[in-house]
Specification:
Keywords: Membrane, Transmembrane, Transmembrane helix. By secondary structure, the chain is mainly alpha-helical. A three-stranded antiparallel β-sheet has the order 2-1-3. It is elongated. Helix 1 runs antiparallel to helix 2, helix 3 packs antiparallel against helix 4 and helix 11 packs parallel to helix 14. It has 14 helices and three strands. The longest helix has 40 residues.
């Protein structure tokens, strides 16, 4: 574990409604990128636009072509009409059709844009992948040049769309070099790998200490599934106690994983043990579990006659 961590300020990854919101495409060379530069990283032209805007432009162009074809057909029908009565009839019918088509298009433009975006992703999947791989290469080069924070931010942005364990471990490896704080914009669930890796366990333990509200179902299941391997780590015991300490902030986790909590309850900091004890005492179902019996034993051994363990008082999360 790195003991010479850097004090840094990590950039905030602004939240977006959709994962693809950060993806842009160059209208000049077709390069896809998540980098927030003003100019295209490939051709240097200032032609980058969000992919959703590109899809909207293509949708509007297609709709315009539909209107234009309808207009041309209407004009052709009028021109070949044998008499004035048919000319007027075709002109009126064409006008009604144009208005109806325009109204339908206007109501459906948002849905049509999303369908066009889906087609763009399917049609240019390889180009998108190549662009994101190139973005990752730029991020790695930043790290190798000593700009670890900038490289981390680039790789983190690509991880929104490129989700694989190799990239997750690269991000975790970089995070190990930083002195993490509770005020930092840090993620957890998106960095958990499919298989066990000490980097993941160490990061979960760190998050349990500085941002315990990030400890949720996915990280808890990961820790429990790999508990024997974590115990073999140098800091494994500390990680498991820290995660247990974070879990007791919610009764749901206590009720779902009482067996795991039992194994580390004795080693909780006092204020976390007090919270756990009070939650169990206040719940009739939890009182029937073996966890309640263990807590009573721990209470009598470690905190005899302690007024904080009388079941009263406000709970701290």
């Amino acid at each position: 574990m790195n003991t010479t961590k850097q004090a840094v300020q990590l950039p905030v990854l602004e939240p977006s409604r959709h994962n693809y919101d950060r993806l842009r495409v160059c209208r000049k060379c077709g390069r896809f990128t998540i980098l927030m530069e003003e100019s295209c990283p490939s051709c240097g032209k200032m032609k980058l636009v969000p992919v959703i805007r590109q899809a909207r432009v293509q949708t509007l162009r297609r709709m315009f072509n539909e209107l234009l074809i309808t207009l041309i057909l209407t004009i052709a029908a009028v021109l070949i009409s044998p008499d004035m009565r048919l000319m007027a009839l075709f002109a009126a019918a064409g006008l009604v059709l144009l208005v109806a088509l325009f109204l339908v298009q206007r109501r459906s433009v948002e849905g049509a844009t999303l369908r066009e975006l889906g087609r763009l992703f399917r049609r240019q999947r390889s180009d998108i992948y190549d662009g994101l791989v190139e973005d990752q290469r730029i991020g790695v080069e930043e790290v190798r040049s000593g700009h670890e924070v900038a490289g981390y931010h680039i790789l983190r942005q690509t991880a929104v769309l490129v989700q694989n364990d190799r990239l997750r471990l690269a991000l975790l490896s970089l995070l190990q070099n930083f002195r993490l704080r509770s005020d930092m914009d840090l993620e957890l669930d998106s960095l958990i790998t499919r298989d066990f890796d000490p980097l993941v366990a160490e990061y979960i333990g760190e998050m349990a200490r500085i941002k315990r509200d990030r400890i949720k179902e996915r990280s808890i299941r990961y820790i429990i599934a790999h508990e024997p391997k974590i115990l073999q780590m140098e800091q494994g015991w500390s990680i498991l106690v820290s995660v247990t300490s974070a879990m007791v902030r919610m009764k749901r986790y206590i009720a779902t994983y009482p067996g795991f909590i039992r194994r580390y309850a004795r080693h909780l900091p006092k204020e976390r043990f007090v919270r756990l004890y009070r939650i169990v005492q206040a719940d009739a179902e939890l009182l029937q579990d073996a966890l309640a019996q263990d807590l009573e034993v721990i209470r009598h051994e470690l905190y005899p006659n302690d007024p904080e363990l009388d079941g009263k008082g406000a709970l701290q999360s």
